[in-house]
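Entry 14. Ran structure prediction on the chain below.
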Amino acid sequence: MTYAFPPGGLPDQTVSPESTAVFTDAYAVIPASVQRDIVTSLLPGWVNTRVWVLARPLTGFAETFAQYAVELAPKGGSDTPEPDAQAQAVLFVATGRARLTLDGQGYDLVAGSYAYIPPAAKWTLWNTGDTPCGLHWVRKRYVPVDGMDAPEAFVTHDNEVAPIAMPDTDGAWATQRFADPNDLRHDMHVNIVTFQPGGRIPFAETHVMEHGLYVIQGTADYLLNRDWVPVEAGDFMWLRAFCPQACIATGQEPFRYLLYKDVNRHMPLSL
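Output, structure tokens:
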């Protein structure tokens, strides 16, 4: 199994700058073709590391999360990765290998590894291989609930979480839910959604949850608000609350994406 990650580099001078990149009031598309070297950021506390910032809280748009694609060069990483003690995180490894230390426990991460890191956890992350390690990092401030503890940390792998098919789809549309959806301690889910070729969302989903969708495999035609947009491996879609969405998987292989959404909390009644 392979997982898409920003290509980096720089196109040559013969390449047209036209792309599917778009930013609207309801959604944004950041295709793989624009995830290049010159748009990366460096972060305090990280060494030999660069980051594509794909999403951040924006007033009046998607306000609950940040999403990075992080590339660790050999021996790159951090002993102080998270500056916000209220932040929880999910790490999903796309390429290479790394060593995660989480509250004193060590884990060797490879492509397909998934880690949930609760708020205030102590963790470190270092590339232990001879090639770059690419991973997706989703950050969200945890919303506590009186009388309810925060979730525990866990580490698993894509291969260890069975997809659950949507009803009446014959497996054409399925979701791997890494956190128990009935566990109300979790206020965000980061899942993998898979469509077999021709599989689809057969209605325009319209809901309060914000989304970050990073396509890790395959191609699709994706409905965003009123626009049909072709997407492929490495493209990122960023949706505000109530942006209608649907998709139809195209091509000869499964269409898969890593999906963030905020869940399981009352809506605040102040802006």
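The two ends are 43 Å apart (CA to CA). Will compare against last week's run tomorrow.
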